[in-house]
Amino acid sequence: MNLVFITGASSGIGQALALAYLQKGWRVAVVARRADTLNAWVQALQKTMVLDSEQVGVFHADVQNTDSLIAAADDCIAQMGVPDVVIANAGISLGIDTAEREDLAVMKQVMETNVLGMATTFHPFIRAMQTRGAGTLVGIASVAGIRGLPGHAAYCASKAAVISYCESLRGELRSSGIRVITIAPGYVATPLTERNRYPMPFLMTPDAFAHQAIQTISRGTSYRVIPWPMGLIAKLLAGLPNALFDRLLTGRPRKHRHSDR
Predict the structure, then answer these.
(1) With left for phi above 0 and alpha for psi between -120 and 50, is residue 220 left, alpha or beta?
(2) CA-to-CA separations, 190 to 4, 86, 105, 131, 199, in angstroms, rounded
(3) In terms of pLDDT, which residue wins out, 6 or 200?
(4) Do the bridges between strand 85-88 and strand 135-140 make them parallel or antiparallel, or are there none, so unpaired?
(5) Cis-peptide into 227, omega within 30 deg
(6) CA-CA distance, 166 to 236, in Å (whole number)?
(7) Among 21, 15, 77, CA closest to 41
(8) pLDDT per residue as tens digits for the range 190-247
(9) Is 187 a catalytic residue?
(10) CA 110, CA 122: separation in Å to the nearest integer?
């Protein structure tokens, strides 16, 4: 039975991906800071789904803590084996104002979670996958990584880094049998987006996103924006001259600062 390892699985996209894989009969290793939330979720699932006692593994880790995350990965390998698919999904979105001194620390937090956390998620599995000659590493990026948005500098920069990082890693591992896949969601209705103060076109549910993401992973597509209409918009935005892009952003509400309520 295939195994998938998913970070940030206590809510939103991560939890939807875990559920979708379970429904397909996969074994699932779920990882999050809130192990109690994960355990409660698994217990609730057992009341509605027939789950093998070894089908779900719950691991506690903070993706900002390198040792914690590597320990969770090592525990997963020891208890469940080397995953077939590793999904680095955990991420945070916090608005910043670079004029504010305290927001530099917030930007550091976002970068450490979204970028270094992804590299740390992949790290413990690469050698074992190379030895096996197969495996899939999936980085969850964002369309926000394609062009910068007001107030969103930390998140946009982190997701742009994710896209480039996964592209670099894909080239490095191409001959090893390991696939590296980048998935860039548009707007998904999760706790990450619920406080946004601007329109979110093509907003989709986590379950709908998970269904399309799993199809992308199974096909081995190297890069995909989900949903596809957002992909078309992303391509258009990427090709716009700066002057025109800046004009389009005029009057657009900025991402609220992390301290705003």
Answers:
(1) left
(2) 21, 21, 24, 37, 15
(3) 6
(4) parallel
(5) yes
(6) 22
(7) 15
(8) 766 666 666 677 788 999 999 999 999 999 999 999 998 888 888 888 888 889 888 8
(9) no
(10) 18
Largest CA-CA distance found in the chain, in angstroms, rounded = 58
* Token output for 86: 């590793």
DSSP strands (E only) in 51-193:
56-60, 85-88, 135-140, 178-185
* Residue (of 211, 152, 201) closest to 16 by Cα position: 211
Question: Pseudo-torsion of CA 166, 172, 178, 183, nearest 10°?
Answer: 10
> How many Å apart are CA 255 and CA 149, to the nearest integer?
8
3-class DSSP state for residue 241? Answer: coil
Give the C-alpha separation, 15 to 30, whole Å. Answer: 8
pTM as predicted: 0.91
Asked if residues 162 and 144 have their Cβ atoms less than 8 Å apart, the reply is no
Under CATH, which number does the domain 3-249 receive? 3.40.50.720
Domain boundaries of the chain, sorted by first residue: 3-249
Summarised one tens digit per residue, pLDDT across range 12-69 is 999 999 999 999 999 999 999 888 888 888 888 888 887 777 899 999 999 999 999 9
* Active-site choice (155, 165, 187, 198): 155
In the numeric block, the tokens 């429904």 are attached to 23
